Protein backbone atom coordinates (compact mmCIF):
# COMPACT_ATOMS: atom_id res chain seq x y z
CA UNK A 1 0.00 0.00 0.00
CA UNK A 2 1.29 3.43 -0.92
CA UNK A 3 2.20 5.78 1.93
CA UNK A 4 0.34 8.84 0.74
CA UNK A 5 1.56 10.84 3.73
CA UNK A 6 5.15 10.31 2.60
CA UNK A 7 4.15 11.16 -0.97
CA UNK A 8 2.49 14.41 0.12
CA UNK A 9 5.46 15.40 2.26
CA UNK A 10 7.81 14.71 -0.65
CA UNK A 11 5.80 16.86 -3.05
CA UNK A 12 5.56 19.67 -0.50
CA UNK A 13 9.33 19.52 -0.03
CA UNK A 14 9.97 19.58 -3.78
CA UNK A 15 7.62 22.52 -4.35
CA UNK A 16 9.11 24.57 -1.50
CA UNK A 17 12.68 23.87 -2.62
CA UNK A 18 11.86 24.71 -6.25
CA UNK A 19 10.27 28.00 -5.23
CA UNK A 20 13.14 28.89 -2.93
CA UNK A 21 15.74 28.13 -5.60
CA UNK A 22 13.85 30.23 -8.13
CA UNK A 23 14.26 33.19 -5.77
CA UNK A 24 17.83 32.39 -4.72
CA UNK A 25 19.09 30.88 -7.96
CA UNK A 26 18.23 33.72 -10.33
CA UNK A 27 20.48 36.37 -8.71
CA UNK A 28 23.30 33.85 -8.22
CA UNK A 29 23.08 32.76 -11.86
CA UNK A 30 22.92 36.38 -13.03
CA UNK A 31 26.03 37.27 -11.05
CA UNK A 32 27.90 34.22 -12.33
CA UNK A 33 26.96 35.07 -15.92
CA UNK A 34 27.69 38.78 -15.97
CA UNK A 35 30.28 39.31 -13.24
CA UNK A 36 33.74 40.28 -14.49
CA UNK A 37 35.52 39.17 -11.31
CA UNK A 38 38.34 36.85 -12.28
CA UNK A 39 37.86 34.69 -9.23
CA UNK A 40 34.20 33.91 -9.91
CA UNK A 41 35.21 30.38 -10.91
CA UNK A 42 35.62 29.74 -7.18
CA UNK A 43 31.95 30.57 -6.65
CA UNK A 44 31.01 28.39 -9.62
CA UNK A 45 32.98 25.52 -8.12
CA UNK A 46 31.30 26.00 -4.74
CA UNK A 47 27.82 26.05 -6.31
CA UNK A 48 28.60 22.96 -8.40
CA UNK A 49 30.08 20.86 -5.59
CA UNK A 50 26.84 18.94 -4.84
CA UNK A 51 27.04 17.49 -8.36
CA UNK A 52 30.10 15.41 -7.46
CA UNK A 53 30.06 15.40 -3.66
CA UNK A 54 28.68 12.16 -2.16
CA UNK A 55 25.29 12.87 -0.54
CA UNK A 56 26.45 11.26 2.70
CA UNK A 57 29.38 13.69 2.94
CA UNK A 58 27.16 16.73 2.43
CA UNK A 59 24.56 15.23 4.75
CA UNK A 60 27.13 14.63 7.48
CA UNK A 61 28.40 18.20 7.49
CA UNK A 62 24.87 19.57 7.37
CA UNK A 63 23.96 17.34 10.30
CA UNK A 64 26.90 18.77 12.25
CA UNK A 65 25.94 22.33 11.25
CA UNK A 66 22.30 21.76 12.26
CA UNK A 67 23.16 20.14 15.59
CA UNK A 68 22.78 21.75 18.99
CA UNK A 69 26.56 22.15 19.33
CA UNK A 70 26.86 24.50 16.35
CA UNK A 71 26.05 28.21 16.18
CA UNK A 72 23.39 27.63 13.52
CA UNK A 73 21.77 24.84 15.49
CA UNK A 74 21.75 26.80 18.75
CA UNK A 75 20.38 29.92 17.06
CA UNK A 76 17.58 27.95 15.40
CA UNK A 77 16.72 26.17 18.63
CA UNK A 78 16.56 29.44 20.55
CA UNK A 79 14.17 30.88 17.95
CA UNK A 80 11.90 27.87 17.41
CA UNK A 81 12.37 25.69 20.48
CA UNK A 82 13.53 22.63 18.53
CA UNK A 83 16.60 21.58 16.58
CA UNK A 84 17.01 22.08 12.85
CA UNK A 85 18.25 18.51 12.43
CA UNK A 86 15.55 15.85 12.08
CA UNK A 87 12.90 18.39 11.15
CA UNK A 88 11.09 19.34 7.95
CA UNK A 89 12.77 22.75 8.00
CA UNK A 90 16.14 20.97 8.07
CA UNK A 91 15.11 18.95 5.02
CA UNK A 92 14.20 22.15 3.20
CA UNK A 93 17.54 23.82 3.95
CA UNK A 94 19.53 20.71 3.11
CA UNK A 95 17.61 20.12 -0.11
CA UNK A 96 18.11 23.72 -1.20
CA UNK A 97 21.87 23.37 -0.82
CA UNK A 98 21.95 19.94 -2.45
CA UNK A 99 19.82 21.01 -5.44
CA UNK A 100 21.44 24.43 -5.90
CA UNK A 101 23.49 23.56 -9.03
CA UNK A 102 20.47 21.94 -10.70
CA UNK A 103 18.81 25.35 -10.70
CA UNK A 104 21.73 27.76 -11.03
CA UNK A 105 23.53 26.09 -13.94
CA UNK A 106 20.53 26.00 -16.34
CA UNK A 107 19.64 29.55 -15.30
CA UNK A 108 23.19 30.77 -15.97
CA UNK A 109 23.40 28.92 -19.29
CA UNK A 110 20.18 30.55 -20.50
CA UNK A 111 21.37 34.01 -19.40
CA UNK A 112 24.67 33.53 -21.22
CA UNK A 113 22.81 32.61 -24.43
CA UNK A 114 21.07 36.00 -24.63
CA UNK A 115 22.39 38.08 -27.54
CA UNK A 116 24.77 40.73 -26.21
CA UNK A 117 23.56 43.13 -28.89
CA UNK A 118 20.13 43.15 -27.28
CA UNK A 119 21.66 44.00 -23.93
CA UNK A 120 23.71 46.78 -25.49
CA UNK A 121 20.66 48.18 -27.27
CA UNK A 122 18.71 48.18 -24.01
CA UNK A 123 21.52 50.04 -22.29
CA UNK A 124 21.76 52.61 -25.10
CA UNK A 125 18.03 53.25 -24.84
CA UNK A 126 18.55 54.14 -21.19
CA UNK A 127 17.09 51.07 -19.54
CA UNK A 128 18.43 50.23 -16.09
CA UNK A 129 20.08 46.90 -15.33
CA UNK A 130 16.98 45.82 -13.42
CA UNK A 131 14.66 46.76 -16.30
CA UNK A 132 16.93 45.08 -18.86
CA UNK A 133 16.88 41.90 -16.81
CA UNK A 134 13.09 41.70 -16.60
CA UNK A 135 12.31 42.99 -20.10
CA UNK A 136 15.13 41.36 -22.11
CA UNK A 137 17.06 38.68 -20.23
CA UNK A 138 14.21 36.89 -18.46
CA UNK A 139 11.81 36.58 -21.43
CA UNK A 140 14.58 35.07 -23.54
CA UNK A 141 15.67 32.76 -20.71
CA UNK A 142 12.31 31.20 -19.90
CA UNK A 143 13.22 27.77 -21.38
CA UNK A 144 16.35 27.60 -19.21
CA UNK A 145 14.47 28.74 -16.13
CA UNK A 146 11.80 26.08 -16.68
CA UNK A 147 14.49 23.45 -17.18
CA UNK A 148 16.18 24.47 -13.93
CA UNK A 149 12.92 24.28 -12.00
CA UNK A 150 12.07 20.88 -13.46
CA UNK A 151 15.51 19.49 -12.62
CA UNK A 152 15.27 20.92 -9.12
CA UNK A 153 11.82 19.45 -8.53
CA UNK A 154 12.75 16.02 -9.89
CA UNK A 155 16.05 15.95 -8.01
CA UNK A 156 14.35 16.84 -4.72
CA UNK A 157 11.67 14.18 -5.18
CA UNK A 158 14.37 11.54 -5.63
CA UNK A 159 16.70 12.63 -2.82
CA UNK A 160 17.79 9.92 -0.45
CA UNK A 161 21.24 10.26 1.10
CA UNK A 162 21.03 13.85 2.30
CA UNK A 163 17.43 13.40 3.47
CA UNK A 164 18.30 10.29 5.45
CA UNK A 165 21.37 11.89 7.05
CA UNK A 166 19.76 15.12 8.24
CA UNK A 167 16.12 14.05 8.58
CA UNK A 168 16.14 10.41 9.56
CA UNK A 169 12.83 8.60 9.21
CA UNK A 170 10.10 10.36 11.17
CA UNK A 171 6.59 9.68 9.76
CA UNK A 172 4.81 12.88 8.78
CA UNK A 173 7.92 14.98 9.42
CA UNK A 174 10.93 13.71 7.49
CA UNK A 175 9.81 10.40 5.98
CA UNK A 176 9.92 11.06 2.23
CA UNK A 177 8.86 8.66 -0.48
CA UNK A 178 12.45 7.57 -1.20
CA UNK A 179 12.92 6.66 2.47
CA UNK A 180 9.62 4.80 2.40
CA UNK A 181 10.72 2.69 -0.58
CA UNK A 182 14.04 1.93 1.12
CA UNK A 183 12.30 0.83 4.33
CA UNK A 184 9.91 -1.43 2.44
CA UNK A 185 12.79 -3.10 0.61
CA UNK A 186 14.63 -3.58 3.91
CA UNK A 187 11.51 -5.19 5.35
CA UNK A 188 11.19 -7.51 2.36
CA UNK A 189 7.96 -5.84 1.18
CA UNK A 190 8.99 -5.87 -2.47
CA UNK A 191 5.44 -5.72 -3.80
CA UNK A 192 4.62 -2.57 -1.83
CA UNK A 193 7.99 -1.05 -2.73
CA UNK A 194 7.37 -1.77 -6.41
CA UNK A 195 3.89 -0.23 -6.24
CA UNK A 196 5.21 2.98 -4.68
CA UNK A 197 8.20 3.14 -7.02
CA UNK A 198 5.95 2.67 -10.04
CA UNK A 199 3.64 5.51 -8.98
CA UNK A 200 6.65 7.76 -8.47
CA UNK A 201 8.09 6.73 -11.84
CA UNK A 202 4.86 7.46 -13.71
CA UNK A 203 4.33 10.73 -11.86
CA UNK A 204 7.86 11.92 -12.67
CA UNK A 205 7.46 10.99 -16.33
CA UNK A 206 4.13 12.81 -16.66
CA UNK A 207 5.47 15.96 -14.98
CA UNK A 208 8.61 16.01 -17.13
CA UNK A 209 6.64 15.34 -20.33
CA UNK A 210 4.17 18.15 -19.61
CA UNK A 211 6.84 20.67 -18.69
CA UNK A 212 9.13 19.85 -21.59
CA UNK A 213 6.12 19.93 -23.90
CA UNK A 214 5.36 23.45 -22.70
CA UNK A 215 9.04 24.26 -23.00
CA UNK A 216 8.93 23.26 -26.68
CA UNK A 217 6.11 25.74 -27.26
CA UNK A 218 8.12 28.47 -25.59
CA UNK A 219 11.00 27.77 -27.96
CA UNK A 220 8.58 28.29 -30.84
CA UNK A 221 7.66 31.71 -29.45
CA UNK A 222 11.34 32.70 -29.43
CA UNK A 223 12.67 31.13 -32.67
CA UNK A 224 15.68 33.45 -32.74
CA UNK A 225 17.03 31.68 -29.66
- What's the CATH H-level superfamily name? MetI-like
Radius of gyration: 20 Å
Please identify the structural class as seen in this structure. Answer: mainly alpha
Estimate percent helicity. over 70%
**What would the average pLDDT be, to the nearest integer?**
87
Name the descriptors:
225 residues; mainly alpha; MetI-like fold; 11 helices; 0% strand; globular; disordered C terminus
Question: What is the structure about, briefly put?
Answer:
With 225 residues, this protein is mainly α. It is 77% helix and 0% strand. The longest helix is centred in the C-terminal third of the chain and has 32 residues.
How do the strands and helices of this protein lay out in sequence?
Elements: H1 4-34, H2 40-48, H3 55-66, H4 71-80, H5 88-112, H6 116-124, H7 129-140, H8 142-157, H9 161-167, H10 177-186, H11 190-221
Write a structural description.
The chain is an all-alpha fold and 225 residues long. It has one domain (4-221): Orthogonal Bundle (MetI-like fold). The chain is 77% helix and 0% strand. The chain has 11 helices and no strands. The chain has helices spanning 4-34, 40-48, 55-66, 71-80, 88-112, 116-124, 129-140, 142-157, 161-167, 177-186, 190-221. Helix 1 (4-34) packs parallel to helix 5. It is globular. The model is unreliable at 217-225 (pLDDT under 50).
Amino acid sequence: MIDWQAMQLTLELALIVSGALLVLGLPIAYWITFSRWRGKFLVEALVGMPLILPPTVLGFYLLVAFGSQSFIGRAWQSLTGHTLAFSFAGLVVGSILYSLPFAVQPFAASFAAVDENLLAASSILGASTWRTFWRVVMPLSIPGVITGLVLTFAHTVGEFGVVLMIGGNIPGVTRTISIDIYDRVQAGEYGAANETALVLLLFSFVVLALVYGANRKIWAVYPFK
